[in-house]
Amino acid sequence: MFCSIMSRRLIDLLNTLPAWLVPLSLLVAVEIAMRGSGIESDGLALPSQVAIALAGLIADGEIFLRTAETIGAIAVGVPVGGTVGLLLGVWLGLSPKAAQLASLSIELFRPIPPVAIIPLTLLIYGLGIRMEAAIVAFACFWPMLLLTRDAVRSVEPRLIEVARMLGLSRARQIATIAIPAALPRIFTALRLTLGIALIVAVTTEITANPIGLGYAIISAGLSLRPEAMYAFLVWLAVLGWLLNAGLIALHRRLFGAAHGEVAA
Amino acid sequence: MTGLALLLLLNGIAAAQTKVTIGVPPVPEFVLPMIAVEKGYFRDHGIDATIKIIPGGQSMPAALQSDSLQIAALSTTSLIQVTDSGLNLTIVSGGAIASAGDTNYGVVAGAGSGIEKPEDFIGKKIGTPGLGGFFHIMAREWFRRKGVDWQKITFVESTFPQLADLLKARTVDAVLSTNPFLQRAAAPGIGGKVFYIAADLPDRLPPFVYASSKAWAEANREAAKSFRLALDKATAFQEGDLPATLEIFGKYVKMPPDVLKTLTINKLDTKVTPQQVQLWVDMMEKQDMLRNSKPTDVLFLK
């Protein structure tokens, strides 16, 4: 009896705790452990040093410049790759014949890791935002294509039948029935695509492109400033979280709780 | 009237400037273009230069080919390899010289690794910045000259800042390193014996050069020549004033001030000859790294 009351109280207490307490506690534990062990390394930094470095990067504005570069490449790459993927996905979702003809090509090209096309895009576009946007577009094209295709396929067939019976043209069928019905799932695809875009953009910057947050991370690491390197990493995590939270809020606002595909 | 004349004159000067974007890694040996920008040597020679700091050298050849960089610092071995594979690049200027007396290229054995002489490396693991890169090639040649079969040594890739940590954690038995990372790896408790490999390699090896695409160099012969003249002035500055040189380097590559102060710079020299480049080709051929043997003078602008 006593035990069950205690465990209920513990559960109640845990339910009242905010989620940010977990990463904060982990950072405090790391700080204590590192200070206790007296560890010295060119690749590690105390969380407190990272926090100071992050404040410095925010104060001098460098972090915003680097963020703008990364977001700039995403802002170009996602619409390009996403739009092409969306249009092709709708087409393949509506036309089983086209889907069957395209299936081999999709399965052949889809597994190519986006970073594997860095040398090719570098030769075509050179260093800079265009090269990175091209890689992001390539990375975003595939999930958008497949998820849109599946979203359109899952539209209630009777809706399409009614549209046909009403004599709607193919274009109107797509615009008034297929896309609106599939929109919540397409939006989920966009959310996943943006997450992929951020990963691919930063990886490209770390590997080859001297702009953005990825470049800042690798540069700080190579110039023996691990605290700045981790500060950029923390910022990147916050950025990813904000991006996701923003899109979830937008999803709820646009489609409401009825389309309960959103998991925070 | 005088103002207008001055404006026209200034416009004329601005128009005569050739815009050049120069890619260099964040290492003190590549400080010369930074000095030439900061001290106005490029401007005096009609070059409007922008420096791009690019970690690692992998993307430099493609960036030259795509014209997003006009000149880039490339390791000489990388230049030899990419031209061997068909890219049309040319040497615009020399960069540095590794002389036999250099203490900037070392293999640091781990403390307690038991490595005291070259033969002790057999069966051991060496942390290497850039497999197949110039440092790795130098080390393999050094082992060959010491009568040690380098194929019996395992080289594992790592970035420079991680080398000391790898050695400390005994993940590797030794590391190949250069300053300031070499000093950190050789610190008491982490490193043991240091083998300075340049002492047993050919003298006056050019570890890197400044290169451009052949098309750019042919179209901008004057600028290519001026680039080297500006670097000559920068070399004189660097030889005369190391603290000011490091201060300029610190403007481009943010480093902790205590690390910046400890940096040393190898002998920098813009002169490089086909014979010096051939020294690398000879080593690389012995290591089966080249497919098409070409005379090294094709790497120079005629």
Secondary-structure map:
The complex is a heterodimer of chains A (about 260) and B (about 300).
Chain A: H1 2-16, H2 21-37, H3 47-59, H4 62-94, H5 96-109, H6 118-125, H7 129-153, H8 157-165, H9 170-207, H10 212-222, H11 226-255
Helix pairs in contact in A: 3-11, 4-5, 4-7, 4-9, 4-10, 6-7, 7-9, 8-9, 9-10, 9-11, 10-11
Chain B: H1 2-16, E1 18-24, H2 32-38, H3 41-44, E2 47-53, H4 60-65, E3 71-75, H5 76-84, E4 89-94, E5 96-97, E6 106-110, E7 125-128, H6 134-145, E8 154-157, H7 160-168, E9 174-177, H8 181-185, E10 191-196, E11 208-213, H9 214-219, H10 221-240, H11 242-252, H12 257-262, E12 267-268, H13 274-286
Parallel strand pairs in B: 1-2, 1-3, 7-8, 7-9
Antiparallel strand pairs in B: 3-11, 4-11, 5-12, 6-9, 6-10
Helix pairs in contact in B: 2-10
Residue-averaged pLDDT of chain A = 88
Uncertain segments of chain A: none
Radius of gyration of chain A from the CA trace? 23 Å
Largest sheet of chain A: none
Quaternary organization: heterodimer
The SSE order of chain A reads: HHHHHHHHHHH
Give the overall pLDDT of chain B as a whole number: 90
* Shape annotation of chain B: globular
Radius of gyration of chain B: 21 Å
- The CATH class assignment of the domain at 68-225 in chain A is Mainly Alpha
Please report the distance between the alpha carbons of the first and last residues of chain A: 36 Å
SS-derived structural category of chain A: mainly alpha
CATH topology name of the largest domain in chain B: D-Maltodextrin-Binding Protein, domain 2
CATH topology of the domain at 68-225 in chain A: MetI-like fold
Q: Number of helix segments of chain B?
A: 13
CATH C-level class of the largest domain in chain B is: Alpha Beta
CATH homologous superfamily heading of the largest domain in chain B: Periplasmic binding protein-like II
Structural class of chain B: alpha/beta
